[in-house]
Amino acid sequence: MSFETITTDELIRIADAGLGFTLRATSKPMEDLIRIANAAKNKGAKITFTELSSLSDHDLKRIHIASEGNILFEQ
Architecture of domain 3-74 in CATH? Predict the structure, then answer.
């Protein structure tokens, strides 16, 4: 299943259910990644973001803070 084609709102509902998934960071705007990260924090969902080359160090820190460690980064 490709999660890149699923809407951000649907991904947030998946994370709110406590389910994990892998998502290419390049497939969503930064603010959507933050929203997904925040949803992961709420239910402890473990989500992996890949293809991080377009994100700055500041962006990665924002995601980490929003997720409280529930987002994994994979290059």
Answer: 3-Layer(aba) Sandwich (3.40)
